[in-house]
Amino acid sequence: MSDIPHYFLYGEASPSEFMEGLHIAFLEESLPKHNFEIHPHRHDNLHQLLIVEQGSVLAQINERCREESGPCILSIPPKEVHGFVHQPDVRGYIITISQVFLLQLFSDTEREEFQYLFRTPLVARLEPDRHTVRAIEYLGPQLMSEFASKEVAQSSMIGAYLKVLFVLLRRSLKPEPDEVHQQDERIAVYEQFMTLLEDHYLQHWSVDQYADVLGFSAGRLNRLCQRYSGQNAMQIIHERLLTEAKRQLIYTQLSSKEICYKLGFKDPGYFSRFFSRHTGITPGKYKKQVREQGRP
Q: Which residues does 59 contact at the CB level (< 8 Å), separation at least 6?
């Protein structure tokens, strides 16, 4: 799949304007920029929801291609190849969510119950007169409003709306035979690794330590990670540390040295080299660059 474009948002190879795990736009405003056609592509770590309130869309998801009319919701997990051709009269929303942000909204029990929502492309065809449609029609503007605001606890409010939206999606589904998802133990292990990572990345656990807890060899864990993320386990560990380092540099007044120790690094020089190796610039230059671009 190396010839299939990988995008952060469609047409963007890097997260230039992605706020705290969410991007949301009106279909009728964003689609004309692309002449109403989104060519096949995929997102490595992003889940997308296409909420079609009215109009229709010709959806290609992996090898399947069919027309869907509103009201409906198309749910596209990370790494699934997808493209769309929309009619000019289409109305609705396109919501792009960080997979990490999305999964953190649900408890372990909920994630087990809703597991196929996060792993399988789905289409929920909504009955116009049902309560669910009215609820979704309410949530869209609320998400858009919160996304544009700068209110306190913005991420928490967005997360709450998203969780309700996914519960409504779950209630609306009438799975076709080929959409029924069977339990995949390998995916479950990968998710366990991601959960462990959130608990222990500041302790700089080795791949062997994670593998031991999961009862696997390091080689098998690397193969699972490669399959479901396109990265080996150490790359995922480093990416998590780097993400947190960037957040601390952008949203706090801590010095690079203070952030170094907060993230579990013992040597500020090593932390600076680690950051530079992955970003091409030092932590100090990164912080200055972001501030000069007018971000928080």
A: 50, 65, 66, 67, 68, 74, 82, 83, 84, 123
The Cα-based distances of 21 to 121, 162, 183, 280 in angstroms read 20, 11, 27, 23
Q: Where are the beta strands (DSSP E) in 1-71?
A: 22-26, 37-41, 46-54, 56-61, 64-69
Query: Does one domain contain both 225 and 260?
Result: yes
pTM (whole model) above 0.85: no
Domain range enclosing 287: 185-292
117 part of a folded domain: yes
Query: Same domain for 169 and 189?
Result: no
At 207-258, the pLDDT tens digits run 999 999 999 899 999 998 888 777 899 999 999 999 889 888 887 888 999 9
| Same-domain pairing of 27 and 66 | yes
Describe the strand order of the beta sheet including 82-86 as a list of residue ranges: 37-41, 82-86, 56-61, 64-69
Q: Which one, of 156, 237, 159, 161, lies nearest residue 200 by Cα? A: 237
Per-residue pLDDT reduced to its tens digit, 73-130? 889 888 777 788 877 788 888 899 888 888 888 887 787 777 778 878 888 888 876 7
The residue out of 163, 179, 195 marking a domain boundary is: 179
Here the CATH number for the domain that contains residue 191 is 1.10.10.60
Domain boundary among 155, 179, 203: 179
Q: What confidence tier does 271 reach under pLDDT thresholds 50, 70, 90?
A: very high
